[in-house]
Amino acid sequence: MHRALTRLEADLGSIKQASALPVRDSLQGNDAINRATDTFLRDLALAPLDNLVRNRLIDHAAALLFASCEQCFQALEASRPIVAIEHAHTGTGAGTSSGARSSNAGACPWSSAAEQRMVVRRC
Fold first, then answer.
1. 41 to each of 20, 65, 72, 111, how far by Cα in Å?
2. DSSP label at 109?
């Protein structure tokens, strides 16, 4: 785990350096930002980390990328383990220790149809 965190900290340094470089288009960023983000996401996916730690590392990377590459920022947001964190706290779905899925593992706890149409990071 220590080795994975060290690698991810180095990836964050690479993202910081790459985001300091000029970009022509903030939607796509530059090659260095794209490579650094891809490396970070790969290392994050392979790291044996708790989902809360994983989510916090994504916070740090997203803060570094905010104005440099919108697509990289979206890739980071899409890789957040929000559902896994929610189910780990409620004891359903991916957070169960037996690995068995509960009957409502794919269900989303929205309270209304209006909330379903909104872009909300609740599940």
1. 19, 13, 10, 32
2. -
Nearest in space to 67 (alpha carbons), one of 13, 14, 22, 119? 22
pTM above 0.70, yes or no: no
User: Is 80 in contact with 51 (CB distance < 8 Å)?
Assistant: no
58-103: pLDDT as tens digits: 999 999 988 888 888 889 988 888 877 777 765 544 444 444 433 3
> Using the 8-state DSSP alphabet, how is residue 94 labeled?
G
Question: In 3D, which of 53, 49, 44, 48 has the Cα closest to residue 10?
Answer: 44
Q: Dig out the tokens for 104 from the structure.
A: 């409502």
If you count them, how many residues does the chain have? 123
User: Which positions ≥6 away from 72 have C-beta within 8 Å?
Assistant: 29, 33, 34, 37, 65
